[in-house]
Amino acid sequence: MDLSLSTRTVPGAGGDRTVVEVGGEIDVYTAPKLREQLVELVNDGSYHLVVDMEGVDFLDSTGLGVLVGGLKRVRAHEGSLRLVCNQERILKIFRITDLTKVFPIHTSVDEAVNAVD
Q1: Taking the complete model, does pTM exceed 0.90, yes or no?
Q2: 50-85: b or e for each residue (b if 16 or more CB lie within 10 Å)?
Q3: Mean pLDDT per segment of 10 residues, for the chain of length 117 residues?
């Protein structure tokens, strides 16, 4: 399966947020596409990102690495990276790797967008 990406800017309680909607599989083959998108957004001045993973069917360690890298990039600009996910099989990966302590994980885009840093 391929990876689909789309972005949009949404006004939130703490200011505008850029929502990156991800669909498909984030793996060793497709993760570079997501990395490129996150780097481009940060380079363009988007430092508060919400990655909507509701459409993600599969996530491997390469995908986790891209998300951690994205978090480091936005934090270098006093930004934030929030995840939206309520699929148990994907959430389990974040729990096993202890990344639930690193990423704020929300159940909806609205909740993530309106969370105040």
Answers
A1: yes
A2: bbbbeebeebeebbbebbeebbebbeeeebbbbbbb
A3: 92 90 96 98 97 97 97 97 96 96 96 87
Taking the C-alpha atoms of residue 111 and residue 108, their distance in angstroms, rounded to an integer, is 5
Q: How does pLDDT run across 79-101, given as a tens digit for each residue?
A: 999 999 999 999 999 999 999 99
Containing 83, the helix (H) or strand (E) segment is strand 80-84
Residues 109, 52 contacting (CB under 8 angstroms): yes
Residue 78 makes CB contacts below 8 A (sequence gap 6+) with 47
12: number of Cβ within 10 Å: 19
